[in-house]
Protein backbone atom coordinates (compact mmCIF):
# COMPACT_ATOMS: atom_id res chain seq x y z
CA UNK A 1 0.00 0.00 0.00
CA UNK A 2 1.38 3.38 -1.01
CA UNK A 3 2.08 5.86 1.76
CA UNK A 4 1.51 9.59 1.48
CA UNK A 5 4.48 11.86 0.92
CA UNK A 6 5.19 14.70 3.34
CA UNK A 7 5.42 17.63 0.94
CA UNK A 8 6.51 21.20 1.52
CA UNK A 9 5.84 22.56 -1.97
CA UNK A 10 5.50 21.63 -5.64
CA UNK A 11 6.25 24.22 -8.29
CA UNK A 12 7.23 24.78 -11.89
CA UNK A 13 8.02 25.18 -14.61
CA UNK A 14 11.23 26.75 -13.39
CA UNK A 15 14.96 26.18 -13.92
CA UNK A 16 17.39 24.00 -12.01
CA UNK A 17 19.51 26.57 -10.22
CA UNK A 18 22.53 24.49 -9.23
CA UNK A 19 25.05 21.94 -10.41
CA UNK A 20 25.29 19.90 -13.58
CA UNK A 21 21.78 20.73 -14.83
CA UNK A 22 22.09 24.46 -14.18
CA UNK A 23 19.56 26.37 -16.25
CA UNK A 24 17.53 23.36 -17.38
CA UNK A 25 13.77 23.73 -17.41
CA UNK A 26 12.28 21.53 -14.69
CA UNK A 27 9.63 21.04 -12.05
CA UNK A 28 10.39 20.81 -8.33
CA UNK A 29 9.03 18.57 -5.61
CA UNK A 30 10.25 19.82 -2.25
CA UNK A 31 9.73 17.34 0.58
CA UNK A 32 9.57 18.19 4.26
CA UNK A 33 11.85 17.12 7.08
CA UNK A 34 15.62 16.93 7.44
CA UNK A 35 18.02 15.00 9.67
CA UNK A 36 20.51 17.90 9.73
CA UNK A 37 20.18 21.48 10.99
CA UNK A 38 22.55 23.63 8.94
CA UNK A 39 22.66 27.13 10.38
CA UNK A 40 22.78 28.76 6.92
CA UNK A 41 20.08 26.53 5.36
CA UNK A 42 18.19 28.30 2.56
CA UNK A 43 15.07 26.17 3.08
CA UNK A 44 14.64 26.16 6.88
CA UNK A 45 10.87 26.18 6.42
CA UNK A 46 11.12 22.45 5.60
CA UNK A 47 12.46 21.45 9.03
CA UNK A 48 13.17 24.30 11.48
CA UNK A 49 10.33 24.46 13.97
CA UNK A 50 12.38 26.06 16.78
CA UNK A 51 14.29 28.92 15.09
CA UNK A 52 17.63 27.11 15.15
CA UNK A 53 18.83 28.41 11.77
CA UNK A 54 20.38 31.84 11.21
CA UNK A 55 17.02 33.33 10.27
CA UNK A 56 15.82 32.70 13.83
CA UNK A 57 12.30 31.99 12.55
CA UNK A 58 10.39 29.10 14.09
CA UNK A 59 8.38 27.84 11.15
CA UNK A 60 5.02 26.15 11.66
CA UNK A 61 4.91 22.53 10.45
CA UNK A 62 1.12 22.72 10.29
CA UNK A 63 1.48 25.32 7.56
CA UNK A 64 4.62 24.02 5.86
CA UNK A 65 4.05 20.26 5.69
CA UNK A 66 1.25 18.56 3.78
CA UNK A 67 0.50 14.86 3.44
CA UNK A 68 -0.11 14.19 -0.24
CA UNK A 69 -1.08 10.93 -1.96
CA UNK A 70 1.48 9.80 -4.54
CA UNK A 71 -1.12 9.92 -7.31
CA UNK A 72 -1.90 13.57 -6.61
CA UNK A 73 1.79 14.51 -6.55
CA UNK A 74 2.34 12.64 -9.83
CA UNK A 75 -0.51 14.44 -11.57
CA UNK A 76 0.69 17.84 -10.40
CA UNK A 77 4.26 17.21 -11.57
CA UNK A 78 3.20 15.85 -14.97
CA UNK A 79 1.03 18.91 -15.55
CA UNK A 80 4.16 21.10 -15.73
CA UNK A 81 5.26 19.18 -18.86
CA UNK A 82 9.00 19.30 -18.12
CA UNK A 83 11.56 16.67 -19.08
CA UNK A 84 13.37 17.02 -15.75
CA UNK A 85 11.91 16.56 -12.26
CA UNK A 86 14.02 17.64 -9.29
CA UNK A 87 13.19 16.16 -5.89
CA UNK A 88 14.62 18.24 -3.08
CA UNK A 89 14.01 19.09 0.55
CA UNK A 90 14.68 19.08 3.38
CA UNK A 91 16.23 15.65 2.95
CA UNK A 92 14.21 13.63 0.42
CA UNK A 93 15.97 10.32 1.08
CA UNK A 94 14.39 10.39 4.52
CA UNK A 95 11.23 9.40 2.62
CA UNK A 96 12.85 7.29 -0.07
CA UNK A 97 10.73 4.16 0.29
CA UNK A 98 7.62 6.29 -0.20
CA UNK A 99 9.27 7.87 -3.25
CA UNK A 100 9.69 4.56 -5.08
CA UNK A 101 6.17 4.40 -6.62
CA UNK A 102 6.34 8.07 -7.62
CA UNK A 103 9.73 7.64 -9.29
CA UNK A 104 8.52 4.51 -11.09
CA UNK A 105 5.52 6.38 -12.44
CA UNK A 106 7.55 9.41 -13.49
CA UNK A 107 10.15 7.33 -15.32
CA UNK A 108 7.28 5.46 -16.94
CA UNK A 109 6.28 8.80 -18.44
CA UNK A 110 9.84 9.32 -19.71
CA UNK A 111 10.91 11.85 -17.07
CA UNK A 112 14.49 12.39 -15.94
CA UNK A 113 14.80 12.58 -12.17
CA UNK A 114 17.42 14.20 -9.96
CA UNK A 115 17.35 13.88 -6.19
CA UNK A 116 19.16 16.44 -4.05
CA UNK A 117 20.53 14.78 -0.91
CA UNK A 118 22.89 15.61 1.95
CA UNK A 119 24.66 12.26 1.59
CA UNK A 120 23.74 10.78 4.96
CA UNK A 121 21.47 8.07 3.47
CA UNK A 122 22.44 5.32 1.07
CA UNK A 123 20.09 5.27 -1.92
CA UNK A 124 17.46 2.55 -2.17
CA UNK A 125 18.28 -0.02 -4.89
CA UNK A 126 14.95 0.61 -6.63
CA UNK A 127 15.73 4.30 -7.02
CA UNK A 128 19.15 3.42 -8.43
CA UNK A 129 17.61 0.89 -10.84
CA UNK A 130 15.14 3.54 -12.01
CA UNK A 131 18.04 5.70 -13.20
CA UNK A 132 17.72 8.50 -10.65
CA UNK A 133 20.69 10.87 -10.64
CA UNK A 134 21.85 11.89 -7.18
CA UNK A 135 23.16 15.39 -6.50
CA UNK A 136 24.98 14.82 -3.20
CA UNK A 137 25.81 17.78 -0.98
CA UNK A 138 27.87 16.69 2.06
CA UNK A 139 27.93 19.40 4.67
CA UNK A 140 31.16 21.03 5.91
CA UNK A 141 32.01 22.03 9.48
CA UNK A 142 30.60 25.56 9.05
CA UNK A 143 27.12 24.03 8.78
CA UNK A 144 27.11 23.73 12.57
CA UNK A 145 26.37 20.01 12.80
CA UNK A 146 28.95 17.66 14.36
CA UNK A 147 31.06 15.50 12.04
CA UNK A 148 29.44 12.21 13.03
CA UNK A 149 26.01 13.59 12.17
CA UNK A 150 26.79 15.19 8.80
CA UNK A 151 29.29 12.67 7.40
CA UNK A 152 28.09 9.04 7.20
CA UNK A 153 30.92 7.04 5.62
CA UNK A 154 28.87 4.06 4.43
CA UNK A 155 26.32 6.31 2.75
CA UNK A 156 28.93 8.48 1.03
CA UNK A 157 30.86 5.42 -0.12
CA UNK A 158 27.76 3.87 -1.68
CA UNK A 159 26.72 7.12 -3.37
CA UNK A 160 30.22 7.71 -4.72
CA UNK A 161 30.11 4.28 -6.39
CA UNK A 162 27.18 5.36 -8.58
CA UNK A 163 28.49 6.69 -11.92
CA UNK A 164 25.81 9.38 -12.20
CA UNK A 165 26.37 10.90 -8.74
CA UNK A 166 27.75 14.41 -8.44
CA UNK A 167 29.07 16.01 -5.25
CA UNK A 168 28.27 19.63 -4.49
CA UNK A 169 29.86 21.49 -1.57
CA UNK A 170 28.60 24.80 -0.17
CA UNK A 171 31.63 27.00 0.57
CA UNK A 172 32.08 30.39 2.20
CA UNK A 173 35.68 31.05 1.15
CA UNK A 174 38.83 29.39 -0.17
CA UNK A 175 39.64 28.10 3.31
CA UNK A 176 36.77 25.64 2.98
CA UNK A 177 38.36 24.01 -0.05
CA UNK A 178 40.91 22.09 2.02
CA UNK A 179 38.08 20.46 3.95
CA UNK A 180 36.46 19.56 0.62
CA UNK A 181 39.75 18.13 -0.62
CA UNK A 182 39.99 15.85 2.41
CA UNK A 183 36.50 14.46 1.77
CA UNK A 184 37.21 14.06 -1.96
CA UNK A 185 40.35 12.06 -1.16
CA UNK A 186 38.80 9.98 1.63
CA UNK A 187 35.76 8.90 -0.38
CA UNK A 188 37.32 9.02 -3.87
CA UNK A 189 34.72 11.50 -5.07
CA UNK A 190 34.47 12.53 -8.70
CA UNK A 191 32.30 15.15 -10.43
CA UNK A 192 32.95 17.72 -7.71
CA UNK A 193 31.10 21.06 -7.75
CA UNK A 194 31.70 24.04 -5.48
CA UNK A 195 28.76 26.35 -4.77
CA UNK A 196 28.98 29.69 -2.97
CA UNK A 197 27.01 30.19 0.21
CA UNK A 198 24.36 32.93 0.06
CA UNK A 199 20.64 33.64 0.25
CA UNK A 200 20.83 36.87 -1.78
CA UNK A 201 22.17 37.67 -5.23
CA UNK A 202 24.82 39.98 -3.75
CA UNK A 203 26.09 37.32 -1.33
CA UNK A 204 26.24 34.65 -4.03
CA UNK A 205 28.14 36.89 -6.42
CA UNK A 206 30.60 37.98 -3.70
CA UNK A 207 31.46 34.47 -2.55
CA UNK A 208 31.56 33.07 -6.09
CA UNK A 209 34.11 35.69 -7.12
CA UNK A 210 36.27 34.80 -4.12
CA UNK A 211 36.12 31.08 -4.88
CA UNK A 212 36.34 30.89 -8.67
CA UNK A 213 40.10 30.90 -9.35
CA UNK A 214 40.93 28.46 -6.55
CA UNK A 215 38.18 26.06 -7.61
CA UNK A 216 39.40 25.98 -11.21
CA UNK A 217 43.01 25.49 -10.05
CA UNK A 218 41.97 22.38 -8.11
CA UNK A 219 40.31 20.87 -11.17
CA UNK A 220 36.77 21.11 -9.83
CA UNK A 221 33.58 22.64 -11.19
CA UNK A 222 31.98 25.90 -10.05
CA UNK A 223 28.25 26.37 -9.86
CA UNK A 224 26.29 29.45 -9.01
CA UNK A 225 22.80 29.59 -7.45
CA UNK A 226 20.90 30.74 -10.50
CA UNK A 227 17.54 30.88 -8.73
CA UNK A 228 19.04 33.17 -6.07
CA UNK A 229 20.60 35.45 -8.69
CA UNK A 230 17.22 35.73 -10.41
CA UNK A 231 14.79 35.79 -7.49
CA UNK A 232 16.82 36.18 -4.26
CA UNK A 233 15.04 34.12 -1.58
CA UNK A 234 11.57 34.12 -3.17
CA UNK A 235 9.80 30.80 -2.73
CA UNK A 236 8.06 28.67 -5.34
CA UNK A 237 10.31 29.63 -8.26
UniProtKB/TrEMBL annotation:
Binding annotation for Mg(2+):
43
Occurrences of domain Radical SAM core (ranges): 21-233
Recite the UniProt keywords alphabetically.
Answer: 4Fe-4S, Iron, Iron-sulfur, Lyase, Magnesium, Metal-binding, Queuosine biosynthesis, S-adenosyl-L-methionine
The cofactors it requires, by name, are: Mg(2+); S-adenosyl-L-methionine; [4Fe-4S] cluster
Reaction catalysed by this enzyme: 6-carboxy-5,6,7,8-tetrahydropterin + H(+) = 7-carboxy-7-carbaguanine + NH4(+)
Pathway it works in: Purine metabolism; 7-cyano-7-deazaguanine biosynthesis
- Pfam families for the chain: Radical_SAM (PF04055)
Task: Enumerate the residues binding substrate.
Answer: 15-17, 30, 88
Q: GO BP, one example? A: tRNA queuosine(34) biosynthetic process
Binding-site residues, [4Fe-4S] cluster: 34, 38, 41
Identify the residues that bind S-adenosyl-L-methionine: 40-42, 90, 137-139
- Give GO MF terms, alphabetically: 4 iron, 4 sulfur cluster binding; carbon-nitrogen lyase activity; magnesium ion binding; S-adenosyl-L-methionine binding
Write out the function statement from the record: Catalyzes the complex heterocyclic radical-mediated conversion of 6-carboxy-5,6,7,8-tetrahydropterin (CPH4) to 7-carboxy-7-deazaguanine (CDG), a step common to the biosynthetic pathways of all 7-deazapurine-containing compounds.
Complexes and interactors = Homodimer.
Please give the name of this protein. 7-carboxy-7-deazaguanine synthase
- What species does this protein belong to? Streptomyces iranensis
Amino acid sequence: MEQDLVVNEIFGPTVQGEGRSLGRRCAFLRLGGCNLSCTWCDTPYTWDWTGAAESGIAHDPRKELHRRPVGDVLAELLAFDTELIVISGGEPLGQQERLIPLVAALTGHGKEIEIETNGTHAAHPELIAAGVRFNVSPKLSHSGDPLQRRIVPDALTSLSALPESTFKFVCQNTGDLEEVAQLVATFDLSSVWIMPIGRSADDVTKHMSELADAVVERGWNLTTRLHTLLWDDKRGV
